[in-house]
Amino acid sequence: MNYKVYTLALVLAPLAIIVGCDKKPTQTREEIIAEYEAHKIEQEHYARLEKELADLKDQQAESAEAEQHKLELMKAMQKQVDDQKKKMEATEKAAKELEQTKQATPPPKDEQQTDSPSRERNRPAPITVAKGTQLVVTLSKELTTDSHNTGDSWTGNLAQDVSVGDQVVWTAGTLVSGIVSQSTPTGRLANGEGVLAIKLNDIGGASIDGGIFVVTGDAKGARNAKVIGGTAALGALVGILSDKKNQTDHALGGAAIGAAVGTAVAAGTASTVIKIESAKPVNFEVPADVRIVKPRR
Which residues of 247-283 are buried (b: 16+ CB within 10 A; e: fewer)? Predict the structure, then answer.
């Protein structure tokens, strides 16, 4: 009889191990708080984008041409606002679903305790990426004024690690994405130049304002690169587009962060097409302190 019981135990033991291993761990309170924190920060980015769009709408255009450029920028900006709204709603949904899972499967009694210092340290905290942080990006494919329109999306990867203090926030190779803020071949503007401007707004799933990388050029092949950012960035871009006196640096005004060094821009043969190559890195620069929470999913 004892022999039969022992045999049965040997048969059931592996099954018990399999069932035990298959059991999914319950969601911790820290994970839920982190999801809601991510949602809060996505809300902040959404509010910032809405304000940028509102400021652009309120800007007075000095000419019919400037008004047309403004409308194109507003269209591209509206797309970014809509995309950010979807992202904000997705983080809220994820947080609520995680909370419902927690409520449906409460943790064992020995885990039902107040937060300990060690558990608090494990909670992902928001990270502030400081103004002036360099974001070096390699595009997935070449962008040109003859194949990409205002409002189109673009993707790429970080060419270098991005650190905040001693912490590496994003490693080289992390996926990035953004939007084409303006695409106008040379000869189309009042000053005879053209513009290709791209905005960086996402790194590894985290929303960020990475500024706007702008390439201006003439039909002789001369090219000039700048990075603009902040509240006045889009207004400054309108200034570049409608600058009849060919004073693009003046048009940038206080929104200019500085010349983009080591970018994929150089003087070349005469062409109406402005390009940003995929083979060379593009330097973005964070225009203002921004909070992010790295997605857990």
Answer: ebeebbeebbbeebeebbbeeeeebeebbbbbeebbb
Which distant-in-sequence residues (6+ apart) come within 8 Å of 269 by Cβ? Answer: 221
Instruction: Supply the CATH classification number for the domain 127-292.
Output: 2.40.128
Q: What is the dihedral of CA 198, 144, 177, 160, to 10 degrees?
A: -90
Both ends of the chain: CA-CA distance in Å?
52
- Calculate mean pLDDT across residues 27-45: 78
Residue 39 has a CB neighbour count (10 Å cut-off) of 20
Q: Where are the domains of the chain?
A: 127-292
146-176: b (≥16 Cβ within 10 Å) or e: eebebbeebebebbbebeeeeeebbeeebeb
Res 100: pLDDT: 80
44: which residues sit within 8 A by CB, 6+ positions away?
291
For 250-268, the pLDDT digits (tens) are 444 444 444 454 455 544 4
pLDDT at residue 221 in the model = 65
Q: Is the pLDDT of residue 278 over 70?
A: yes
Average pLDDT value over all residues in the chain: 74
